[in-house]
Amino acid sequence: MACCTVYLGRVLRLTEITGHFGTTGSALLWALADPVMTLGFAWLVFLAVSERTWFSRLLEARPLKAIGLWSYSLYLWHWYPCLLLAKAGVAIAGSNVLVQNVVLIGSLAILIPFSALSYRMLEAPYFRRGHTAAATPPAETLSGSTPLVDSVEAS
Which position among 25, 66, 103, 153 has the lowest Cβ density within 10 Å, counted as fewest Cβ atoms? Predict the structure, then answer.
């Protein structure tokens, strides 16, 4: 059901769907699209962490754990194939739902292996050398003191 809510939000953004409801209806459906998708994603996260469900077991599957490892590389590289495939798809067949879905599938087909390679060649060696996320120092106040550190030292 949560996945359907996310997809409903995606459908509400399609001009082919919203165009049938006139200017006011189209604007209303477009305005509802993001909150509906956000609600669906929040619901998915809640289901994943709150109890043992089919969805939490799905997220523990080995392929999805691998995608989790590669997610930063996916984030870093996703723009290039998406943009190139979208431009090519629109030039060839115009902008429609089929082109959007073909671009999505094509982008994933390029991105997943490329991100796995990027993770293996760039990220994994960095973390194997013992690098971790550096802790940021506490912010200083105008007086030059650090409130959190000062309160800990005083006790």
Answer: 153
